[in-house]
Write a structure and sequence with these properties.
Layout: H1 12-19, E1 23-26, E2 38-39, E3 45-46, H2 51-62, E4 66-70, H3 76-85, E5 89-91, H4 97-107, E6 115-118, H5 122-130, E7 133-136, H6 142-147, E8 150-151, H7 160-171, H8 175-180
Parallel strand pairs: 1-4, 1-6, 4-5, 6-7, 7-8
Antiparallel strand pairs: 2-3
Helix pairs in contact: 1-7, 2-7, 4-5
């Protein structure tokens, strides 16, 4: 019995690409958060993360998929969240996401054909075009929607990261067995 129909809208070629994914890369602002920048009166930045995304990331890791964050801003909150989730690679303050992604590839056994990336704006564009599976969010820039292989239904900060994770797991044939552990 299938609980999810996440791969149904994907072409056979994209499902094949997803089956090879061993690295999932996330942008933060606009993907793992809603993209709003909130500051306290003392200048401290506040970010809100969705727990759905957090569990999705942990499920990827449970399935043997390495995870990474590449973000243009620097934030102690992102560092804390990455550490709490056990994210392997955290690259902050990186406006050129493709250069950062290539650095991860150079340090690991991953490459463009084994990487999935989700981003929402121009700094992510080259990265999503360079990977096997490039995704975006419906509230992302329209140019991203033109170039991504796939777009989540949920907005950034509202579970889009979880959809991305489930898409990968579904294509790899691992989602139902993971779900069965919770039933």
């Amino acid at each position: 019995m299938s609980y999810f129909n996440t791969s149904a809208a994907l072409s056979g070629e994209l499902i094949e690409r997803l089956r090879k994914v061993s690295l999932a890369v996330f942008d933060v602002d606009g993907v793992l958060t809603d993209g709003h920048l909130n500051f306290l009166p003392d200048g401290t930045e506040v970010k809100s993360f969705n727990t759905l995304d957090g569990l999705g990331i942990k499920l990827l890791q449970q399935a043997g998929i390495e995870t990474a964050i590449i973000t243009g801003r620097r934030s102690p909150q992102v560092e804390m969240r990455a550490k709490a989730l056990g994210i392997t690679h955290l690259l902050q303050g990186r406006e050129d996401k493709l250069v950062a992604l290539k650095e991860i590839w150079a340090q690991t056994a991953h490459g463009s054909d084994t990487t999935a990336y989700i981003g929402d704006d121009w700094p992510d564009l080259a990265a999503i075009r360079a990977v096997a599976f490039g995704a975006t969010v419906p509230n992302g820039h329209p140019l991203m929607l033109q170039h991504a292989h796939w777009c989540t239904q949920r907005a950034g900060g509202a579970g889009a990261g979880r959809e991305f994770c489930e898409q990968i797991l579904s294509a790899r044939g691992q989602l139902e067995s993971i779900v069965s552990e919770y039933l």
